[in-house]
Amino acid sequence: MTVATGLLMALLLAQAAVPAAAGPATEPAKAEAVKPAKAEKPKKVCVEEAQMGSHFKTRICATPEEWERRRERDAAVLQRGANTPTK
């Protein structure tokens, strides 16, 4: 859970508690009708990559965190290949 999601949930819980405590006893149905907000989907970044052996490009979409993991994985693969002795 992100900090923003946690703060949003805390705010919603605080707002739900205040009307229930301050309002008359005839408003419990209104307090129950309050629904938590939908969690935001992470923003995706899309890139078109050329495929080896094809003239077509492939569109790849991922979150910034996924792109960073992919960059780290690719760098590790390249590093292992650079450290491999040639015959």
Q: Tags for this entry?
A:
single chain, about 90 residues, 2 strands, alpha+beta
Give a brief rundown of this model:
This protein has 87 residues and is α+β, with helices and mostly antiparallel strands. The protein has three helices and two strands; from the N terminus they run ααββα. The model has no long low-confidence stretch (mean pLDDT 77).
Tell me what you see in this structure.
The chain has 87 residues and is an alpha+beta fold. The protein has 3 helices and 2 strands, in the order ααββα. The protein has helices spanning 3-22, 28-32, 64-82; strands spanning 45-50, 57-62. Strands 1-2 form a two-stranded antiparallel sheet. A hairpin with a 6-residue loop joins strand 1 and strand 2 (57-62). It is elongated, with a radius of gyration of 25 Å. The mean pLDDT is 77.
Q: Given the C-alpha coordinates, what overall shape results?
A: elongated
Biggest sheet overview? 2 strands, antiparallel
Backbone CA Rg: 25 Å
The first-to-last residue Cα distance is 50 Å
Order of helices and strands: HHEEH
List the helices and strands and how they pair.
Layout: H1 3-22, H2 28-32, E1 45-50, E2 57-62, H3 64-82
Antiparallel strand pairs: 1-2
